[in-house]
Please model this.
Amino acid sequence: MSATGYGWLVLAFPLAGTLALALGWRLWPGRAAGWIGSAAILGSFAASLGMLFELLDRAEDSRSLVGTAYTYADTAGFRADMSILVDPLSVFMCLVVSGVSFLIHVYSVAYMTSDRGYVRFFAYLNFFVFSMLLLILAANFVVLLMGWAFVGAASYLLISFWYRRDTATGAGIKAFVINVIGDVGLVVGAFLLFDGTGALDYAGVFEEAGNAFGRNDGQLVAACVMLLVGAFAKSAQVPLHTWLPDAMEGPTPVSALIHAATMVTAGVYLIARMHPLFELAPAAADVGAVVGTVTLLIAATIALAATDLKRVIAYSTMSQIGYMVLGVSVAAYGAGLFHLMTHAFFKALLFMGAGSVIAAMGGVQSLDKMGGFRKAMPFTFATFTIGALALAGFPLMSGFFSKDEILAFTLNRGGGYVVLAVAGYLASGLTAFYAFRMVFRVFFGEPVPEARELERGHLHHGDPANPATGEKEDTEVGFPGPEHHVAEQAWPMKAAMAPLALLAIVAGTLGIPGVTDTLEHFLEPTFEDSRFLETHPSESSEWLGLALGGGLALLGIAVAALVYLRRPGTALQLRERFSTVHTFLSNKWYFDELFDAVFVRPMAAFGRFGRSIIESVFVQGVLVGGTVGAVRVGTSLARAIQTGELRAYAFLLVSGLGGLVLYFLIVSV
Amino acid sequence: MIPLAEIQPPVIDYGGLAPLFATIGGSLVVFLVGLLGGRFVQRTLVPLLAAAALLAAIGLTVANWDPGDTKPIIEGALAIDTLALFLSMLFFVAGLATIALSLRAPVVRETGSGEHLGLLLGSISGMVILAGAENLVTLFVGIELLSIPLYVLCASELGRASSLEAGLKYLVVGSVGSATLLYGLALVYGATGSTDFAGIAKGIGTTVGVGDPLLLTGVALCATGLAFKASVAPFHQWTPDVYQGAPTPITSFMAVATKAAAFAIILRLFDHALADVQAEWAPALAALAVLTILIGNAGAIAQSSLKRMLAWSGVAQAGYLLAGVVVGTRLGLQATAFYLAVYLLMNVAAFAVVIARERVSEHGDDIRSLQDLGRASPLLAWPMTIAMLALAGFPATAGFIGKFYLIDAAVAGEYAWLGIMIVVGSMISLVYYLRVIAVMWMGQFAIELPTFPPRRVKPVSGWSPEADARAQPEVVAVAVLAAAATVVLGIVPSPLFDLARDVGSSLSALV
Model:
């Protein structure tokens, strides 16, 4: 089978899975739905491997294939095909997405067992994977937009999966609204590009862009900035990031799948995919680099103060994606995507570990209430620590090689980029600190009652309650199920975490400076037109950067050990000493308040305006009259018409007409 | 006295007139047969006859389909081209949907099937005439023939005061619109000395200058009159009241068919007869489009009645459609035709669900009538979900590709900012479209809504409304078919694209 044939199979499996689960939702007994969903994603992964081998069989300069199913739209104005692009970049992304998604599906098979919406969950999950793969494989902007919007919708469905929780539905709506802002950015960007190049498919746009736009041409920069808006919204970059921490309202496997490993990396993928444009518009690329740096720094500081376990990991995700955005914006494509891959492994692993811990706590997510789980949960402890080490960039772990390669590239660009690199190094120290703040607070110290109970082999289930508000809930459909599952007692969870832990350790070997460059070499055909292909930092400076990063990681871990292990009271003292800073950080830099003032309130005012001004004039008579009593409206038709409504109509009519006539008379002279 | 021999009878192409004969003839037959009483006649025979007339009209329209130049069928008065035929097809399809939707509607019990469907077919005949009008007089005849039956139909649910009110209000406002239009037509005739569109187009620039005040005042009045019919702001105020008051099957007919008819004549008048003064009218229409998009979307946010919400959404959609007219290009014409077809599908699906719910729910057409529909009746909830997503322009629905087409036309026609307005409008519209979806699928989700008293369903004589409300397969079928078409055309839009391209060949003045 051809590579594109495999490409269509990659999409067909999860789509078939979605349909089978959704249409047969009454039929699947027990865990069958979970295994069907997992099998569909495994099929996708196998087909991705098929694509990989087909590509490797081909010469390097012919590894970009477009497969067209049919013509989607063909008019005088534009032509768009339903087509997919199979090249090293999309194959790489498909492998990462389908591989990690498969493991997360397996994890969920056990984790979600007692939930009343079990089948629905896997139908959504399959739909999400389908959308994400569609986004990745798209060969033109129309298909990209479809995938883009589907992914947003799937994430909305999954965040509000427990739809009877107000906090969950609210978070879902917030995510959706911000994603729609991103969609609009993407649409406008695509149209600006279409306007200049007359093409909608990537190849055509890239080919024409060089002729249609000069370097840093205004329209091109605008288009790229609009694409960045789309990327920032999906990838939770400042200031469009506020939805991501709230999205932790979804079930933990969702956080692992969507909000760590796959969807949030879509923005990084988009920038890498559009690299010919960003290299033509360096001004826009610089916007990306700066925003990435600001995000990685801000998120790392917030993660220092957050007390909700999942939210700490969520801010860490934002911060790590900041690194990736920085990487692909400074043309370190190989490094950025390398980090995307290693991050997918260790972050999914961290979320799975967190899910296990939260289950052991009976649904409680606050770090303040956890402690001493080391003995009770040896497997979770080991894997979580591996994840944290990789996240911290501990020497020789996967995160060590990938993160520091980005920073070495940034440093190598010289000039103002040095500032960005310095900020990146600063944040990597913070990363190590907050990563081990989690490890030490969850697994070390005095065991909490839940840990003691688990040590005796009994899992604490607790009263079902919303961890965000403490509100009591039942366990009916639309709420989390009554039972919890920890990795120690459920083999599918272990089976999903073990390979990820292994990958989190060894995935770094795909790109050790001077030793291996497997990944970068594989991706080269996609980026061969890049002006920066040859501007590698020298090997010695890469190793210097690695040494610096590794040193900072060790320092961060040491400080965390000092604060949380050696002198447990230090954290509180620090908090009191720097209470203003702490308040500022635990209020998340007040972004929510800022958003409220800038967007939410004006929108609400707009709605009120709609209601009061536009409606009231006309509704008063009918609707309000109706509320006062249908009787009064019904009594006299004449009266209803005399209430001034028609007069209001007439007034607007005459002024509208007057305006139009006036305009035409002015034009006529 | 003129000798008879000197009068040249107009050349009449009876083949081209055949679809019109089918609807007018069908209307008369239905009226007459409807006079017979009896359950069989009222419930089965009359709707069957009406449907047969429309099916025959559709067949004859397909037979006439011939992409290319305009063919006169009554010389100087009526012509057929792909635009006229395409839109006629839309009217017929909307008519068929309306017949199915009103099969068990309370309004039919109160007025009788014959009157109801006879008037409907009469209105459709007016639309067909309007779509093929080649001269100002035919235009006006068409507009009146389509409007007058609708005034009656709006008021025909006799037991409900708001229906009477809607009819009267529509009559008053519609007459003002017609009068304004007539005045405008007279001024255009006065300025150019010609009543037929080709003559007007020829006259502009020769007998009368492009900037002539008389001509432009006429254009302004015409624009106002037609803006009424198309519910373009600020001439839209009647829309929510009338849509809510009218019997719902009629509302759905007005929402899709009347809008298509209004845009048919707007396209013909502005992009054909007045194409040479495009530079003058385009900015004014563009301003109206922006105003319409903003007001329509702002108005829809505040609604709890689904019919009112759809009315306001229809106002907003008219703004999007106007963008295709403003650019005055072939691409714009194609995009408008495409969107009108898509618009029909999306709205018919939504209205069918509203009809199905208001017959059984104590909340009437209030949004609360949809609560928990996802679990109770997925066959209704899915079409509504698809319709709402498509109206919002969600990718992989026909609504997305339709909006894409319109934006494309706007961008290509140097009105890129109007394209951006469409995007912004769609973004705002998500607020009220998604609210509907949330109510259906998320059971206990409390949603802030304006309060509205529940409507009392009036018991009526004749067959049992309760039994009817329980079984309404035809309404479900309409909803499912329209929604399925929305999705299929969203994934495989090329057949509709091909039709739209043929439509593009009809107005020869366009580039």
Remarks:
- Residues 445-463 of chain B have pLDDT under 50 and may be disordered.
- Strands of chain B lie at 71-74, 78-80.
- Residues 12-504 of chain B form one domain.
- The two ends of chain B are 47 Å apart (CA to CA).
